Amino acid sequence: MAKKEASAPTRKRPATPRLPANVRRGINAALSKKADDVVVLDLSKTPAFTDYFIISTGRSVRQVQAVADAIQDALREKNVKPSVVEGSRRAEWVLIDYFDFIFHVFTPATRDFYALEKLWGDARRIEIPAD
Predict the structure, then answer these.
(1) What does the DSSP 8-state code read for residue 33?
(2) Which domain covers residue 58, as residue numbers?
(3) Residue 14 falls within a domain, yes or no?
(4) Distance (Å, rounded) from C-alpha 84 to C-alpha 119?
(5) Tell me, what's the pLDDT at 45?
(6) In this model, does residue 5 exceed pLDDT 80?
(7) How far apart are the C-alpha atoms of 43 and 52, rounded to whole Å?
(8) What pLDDT band is residue 14 in, cutting at 50, 70 and 90?
């Protein structure tokens, strides 16, 4: 009878909480343009006007524009259109509002200045790893 070898314990990666498909689709689009520090604030259990804030950073105005465009393009492919897009011209902070979720794409200095994560401190924070 052959001896069973003990296998080394495997380390499980913490599971990312389930997010709506369109939120995931937008996040993937942002990551495809190398967005930094992507964070989801789950506001569904707060008195907020939306369920999710998705916050990311582009290293330059040009990258912020590319990330915001990629998000909109990815969701447009599924016939999902934003109700409002603000800040595209200056691209220091682009806000893309889809009612149930809102994408915020910042330059580093603008993200630090507005500190949305601190403003919505009671929201559950979901870190999105850059793959």
Answers:
(1) T
(2) 21-127
(3) no
(4) 21
(5) 86
(6) no
(7) 5
(8) very low
